[in-house]
Design a protein that fits this description.
The complex is a heterodimer of chains A (about 500) and B (about 425).
Chain A: E1 2-12, E2 15-26, E3 30-34, H1 41-48, E4 56-61, E5 64-66, H2 71-76, E6 79-82, H3 94-99, E7 105-106, E8 111-112, H4 114-127, H5 143-156, E9 161-165, H6 173-188, E10 192-197, H7 200-206, E11 209-214, E12 217-222, H8 228-236, E13 254-264, E14 270-280, E15 284-288, H9 295-303, E16 310-315, E17 318-319, H10 325-330, E18 333-336, H11 340-344, H12 351-355, E19 366-367, E20 370-371, H13 373-386, H14 403-415, E21 421-425, H15 433-448, E22 452-456, H16 460-466, E23 469-474, E24 477-482, H17 488-495
Parallel strand pairs in A: 3-10, 3-11, 6-9, 9-10, 15-22, 15-23, 18-21, 21-22
Antiparallel strand pairs in A: 1-2, 1-4, 4-5, 7-8, 11-12, 13-14, 13-16, 16-17, 19-20, 23-24
Chain B: E1 7-8, E2 19-20, H1 24-41, E3 49-53, E4 66-69, H2 70-93, H3 100-118, E5 127-128, H4 129-155, H5 163-185, H6 188-216, H7 221-241, H8 243-246, E6 259-260, H9 270-274, E7 276-277, H10 279-297, H11 299-309, H12 311-316, H13 321-340, H14 342-346, H15 359-369, H16 374-397, H17 403-418
Parallel strand pairs in B: 3-5
Antiparallel strand pairs in B: 1-2, 3-4, 6-7
Helix pairs in contact in B: 1-2, 1-3, 2-3, 4-10, 4-13, 4-15, 4-16, 5-6, 5-7, 5-13, 5-15, 6-7, 6-13, 10-11, 10-16, 11-13, 15-16, 15-17, 16-17
Classes of the chains: A alpha/beta (about 500), B mainly alpha (about 425).
């Protein structure tokens, strides 16, 4: 089996997501497709998988040109894909998900042959040691298991090419290692694996060939023996330092004190379970953990947008839990939400208006209930310059900015109030390297200015680079708070719920 | 565990995740049981009797009417209900789901307590049990068809608010075709059956319009549905005032013949209730059974449900999402249209303006109460039909409860059911969201 992409070009309006990309994948190898978020990796795979039509170029299978009208065709040709967002039907069982689309039927009434599907799941599960119960319902399974179900799905269709799209984004380091082991087993069994990722460590661990993509173009290929720095500079286009320059923290008084904070969601499930910790002025507490372990609920409960069911948070001696969001913001909380486009900005509104969302009703921005455009514009120009927002005009809609510039708008708004506490969730997700450095610098500057800072990040690298202390969350609890030089294996174990009393500082 | 007092760790839940005990339903049952004891039990005067009639003249065996002492019976039934409420509390406390039979038995006990109370001292006008059940089934027919239509559409991800319009269109075309064929051929039965065949076509057309706007043009499905309802009302009213007025032959009162099933229809109670109906009612049972099997056991059903839950996942395994939705919406429209035939040919009535009277919306409630499953739709439809029949019966006997209150009960039950009192009611995840690539 040999799969080749030749000159694939895909445009969305004016934007060229893939620009004449060539790629060759052969069976029994792991081919890593390396690139930053937004470099066009997923677009390429969606073209290959028949979800998008390419504007130019062709796909060759064993040197024969093929055209996939849809995913069904691609699968029939032996190409399986594990999407970044799993394509699993949540109320269905594992067996039902695996059989979906190519169901075996039995009996005179042609009803579903669930027994055959179960047997298939068991067979594949045993072959690769997946430990997946065919009758488990998807929504009850942890993400690692869901991912294995996705792989079973592809293998049950005799996929000889398996595409894994950012497979480790939602996994703990230990689950990641397991997955990489599975990838090796698959390769040894003769499958061609395409691993799409921006994580260098994984690439180096399993890839046989590496193709690097930047801004929709292939910028080079590399051997897995290349150093992380070489790969990184190839990926982002220039030399990068993997660390953030910052001085030793000079922690002051306790600024934020959280005591037994608990959040129960609508379904009655405890999402945040009696969390207690302190953050001092002039220190960054980074919260590590696999997504969905209560980090979102913690930050949103502190902001007051999610009601807390028990416990309290005290900011500079003042209890903030139960207060109105507006009052909490004005008492000195800066909040950078995890989903910038959804919660950080109002996309169709201008940059100038987005910059005063929090203070639009105060003087001098509004008088007698009427906005003062001149004052607002003046203020906006100042911020745009200070925060290096690349825009043609402050009257441009914020939604038309790039991700990095949108984030700068959010930061400019949140940091323009005198802050006692800054909470930033995944502040650099999806940003280019230049913007990441800028955001990190501003966060460190805020710390040095005497604010307490809480960073939530799914990227362990970012956590380690920024933190003065690291709190690890698992199942709505803080498993432990450890110094930033704690080794990754320990952090990984903690992210998987293991509690090490000695490590807790 | 620092959680509210009603929480406790569930055995099956992973560590750190705690589930609330759902005590609301048992408490509600307890309150209803208590109310039943006070109102129906102690509210009945001592020394009176309630007479229940079961037998019908056509039955094999004649079961004589029987009379029970009103007060004692009502009290005992209420106590039984309270006992069941206590049992449900125990189930909930042990984190076990409260079984359906318990709810059914509870409802039966309270209803009979109420019947005993209403019929107390009215010996001459006995409570017609069999008549009540026949009425329930009959009144349930359009609701069940409507709920089946809604289930079929929503399982594929399309919200069908246009059921009311589909029922009305079905009722109209059934009447017109029946009238036309009957006056052309001279056979009223042939006319009625042709009307029955025409009804789903009318419903399917409304369904096709819904599918067109919802799937192709991504218009908000609720808005399209509402507009279609108004459109069908307008069109049928217009034709009623013009075409049907000028040609009275087209709108006669033509009824489907009754098809009693030999022997079976003479069994007491179940005979007249189940085996002495017309084609529409039998079709209803057949469709419920077939659809229940197809939706949950067949390849088609698995794909439909996948499309309604996670269309993108369905697409990635090669299922045509929009084609599935269009087909289901049209098929759903056809089933609702068939249900519309109930109002005219199944009832032996001529078409009248807006004669569906909001049953299409109640059908949506039945669909939700039935948790988007065909057999649930049947059960919920029968429940609503029963409440309707009860109201009619109380009107005959002369009850002190205003009949409007009784008519409200099933809908109150639905609101509570939807609010999650009875259990976890979850619609298909992708319903109402157009699928765009």
């Amino acid at each position: 089996m040999k799969l080749e992409l030749r000159g694939i070009t895909k445009r969305f309006g004016d934007f060229t997501a893939n620009d004449r990309i060539d790629l060759l994948v052969e069976s029994g190898t792991v081919h890593a497709l390396l690139g930053e978020n937004g470099a066009g990796k997923s677009t390429l795979m969606n073209v290959l998988f028949g979800l998008y039509d390419a504007d130019e170029g062709e796909v060759l299978l064993n040197d024969e040109p093929v055209v996939f009208a849809g995913p069904g065709d691609a699968m029939a040709a032996g190409i399986g894909m594990v999407h970044q967002h799993f394509m699993l039907v949540h109320p269905f069982t594992v067996a039902e998900n695996v059989m979906l689309g190519h169901e075996d039927v039995t009996g005179p009434a042609k009803l579903l042959d669930l027994e055959a599907a179960r047997a298939k799941v068991r067979e594949i599960s045993e072959r690769f040691n997946f430990n997946v119960d065919p009758d488990a319902v998807i929504e009850d399974l942890p993400v690692g298991a869901q991912q294995r179900v996705e792989i079973i799905k592809a293998l049950s269709r005799d996929a000889s090419v398996l595409i894994l799209d950012e497979p480790t984004a939602v996994l703990t380091p230990q689950e990641t290692d397991e997955l990489l082991g599975i990838v090796r087993d698959l390769r040894d069994a003769g499958t061609a694996v395409v691993l799409i990722t921006h994580k260098l460590r994984e690439v180096k661990a399993v890839a046989d060939t590496i193709t690097v993509i930047r801004r929709g173009k292939v910028v080079g290929t590399a051997e897995p023996t290349a150093s992380q720095e070489e790969l990184a500079s190839l990926m982002v286009g220039r030399a990068v330092t993997m660390r953030v320059d910052k001085d030793e923290a000079k922690p002051g008084e306790t600024m934020l004190s959280v005591d037994g904070l608990t959040v129960v969601d609508e379904a009655g499930i405890v999402q945040l379970d009696g969390v207690s910790f302190d953050v001092k002025a002039g220190e960054i507490l980074a919260i590590a953990g696999v997504q969905g372990n209560g980090q979102t609920e913690l930050t949103e409960a502190l902001l007051g947008i999610v009601p807390s069911d028990a416990g309290s948070a005290t900011l500079d001696g003042e209890v903030i839990t139960g207060k109105a969001i507006k009052d909490i913001l004005m008492s000195g909380l800066g909040f950078v939400p995890e989903d910038r486009t959804e919660d950080g900005i109002v996309a169709p509104m201008t940059i100038a208006n987005n910059l005063i969302l929090d203070i639009h009703d105060r003087k001098p921005y509004s008088r007698g209930g009427v906005l003062q455009p001149k004052v607002i514009a003046e203020e906006a120009r100042k911020h745009v310059e200070q925060f290096d927002v690349r825009a043609t005009s402050i009257e441009q809609t914020t939604g038309s900015l790039s991700g990095g510039n949108q984030q700068k708008v959010v930061l400019a708004r949140e940091l323009s109030r005198p802050l006692k506490l800054l909470i930033a969730s995944n502040p650099t997700r999806g940003l280019d390297v230049g913007s990441i450095e800028f955001v990190h610098k501003r966060i460190v500057a805020e710390r040095d200015g005497g604010a307490a800072v809480i960073i939530v990040s799914a990227e362990l690298d970012e956590v380690v680079a920024l933190a003065d202390r690291i709190a690890v969350m698992y199942h709505g609890r803080i498993v432990g708070i450890v110094p930033p030089d704690t080794d990754r294996d320990t952090l990984g174990l903690m992210m998987a719920g293991a509690h090490d009393e000695e490590e807790a500082a | 565990m620092t959680t509210a007092t009603m929480d406790a760790p569930a055995a099956e839940a992973p560590a750190g995740i705690v589930r609330h005990r759902r005590l609301v339903a048992p408490i509600a049952l307890g309150a209803i049981g208590l109310l039943s004891l006070i109102v129906f039990g102690f509210g009945t005067q001592g020394g009176l009797e309630t007479t229940f009639a079961i037998a019908r003249p056509t039955d094999f065996v004649d079961i004589p009417d029987f009379a029970v002492p009103s007060q004692a019976t009502a009290i005992i039934l209420s106590l039984v209900a309270l006992g069941l409420a206590g049992l449900s509390f125990w189930f909930a406390w042990a984190h076990r789901p409260v079984p359906l039979w318990l709810y059914s038995a509870f409802a039966l006990a309270v209803i009979f307590a109420m019947l005993t109370w209403v019929g107390a001292g009215k010996g001459s006008t006995s409570m017609q049990i069999t008549g009540l059940l026949i009425g329930s089934v009959f009144l349930a027919v359009p609701l069940v068809f409507g709920a089946l239509a809604g289930t079929l559409c929503e399982r594929s991800g399309i919200i069908n608010i246009a059921i009311e319009g589909q029922l009305l269109a079905g009722a109209f075309l059934a009447a017109v075709v029946a009238g036309g064929v009957a006056s052309a051929s001279g056979s009223r039965a042939l006319g009625a059956y042709m009307g029955l065949i025409a009804a789903p076509i009318a419903g399917a057309l409304v369904g096709a319009a819904l599918a067109l706007f919802a799937v192709k043009y991504w218009v908000n499905q609720i808005v399209v549905g509402v507009v279609l309802n108004v459109l069908v009302v307008g069109v049928t009213n217009f034709l009623f005032g013009t075409l049907l007025k000028e040609n009275p032959d087209l709108n006669q009162a033509i009824g489907l013949p009754r098809l009693p099933i030999p022997l079976l229809h003479q069994i007491p109670i179940i005979g007249p209730v189940l085996f002495n109906s017309n084609m529409v009612v039998y079709l209803m049972y057949i469709i419920v059974i077939v659809m229940n099997i197809m939706l949950f056991k067949s390849r088609w059903g698995l794909r439909v449900r996948a499309v309604g839950e996670h269309p993108r996942a369905a697409d990635t395994v090669g299922i045509k999402v929009n084609r599935t939705r269009v087909r289901n919406t049209i098929l759903g429209g056809a089933i609702a249209g068939l249900g519309g035939a109930f109002f005219t040919v199944a009832n032996g009535l001529a078409f009248g303006k807006e004669m569906t009277g909001g049953k299409g919306f109640i059908a949506l409630a039945a669909m939700i109460l039935g948790r988007w499953s065909p057999k649930g739709a049947l059960a919920a439809g029968l429940l609503f039909g029963f409440a309707d029949a009860l109201r009619e019966q109380f009107g005959i006997v002369g009850s002190s409860i205003p009949s409007q209150f009784l008519a409200m009960l099933p809908y109150l039950a639905t609101i509570f059911a939807v609010a999650g009192l009875v259990g976890h009611v979850r619609p298909p995840a992708a319903e109402g969201i157009p699928y765009k690539k």
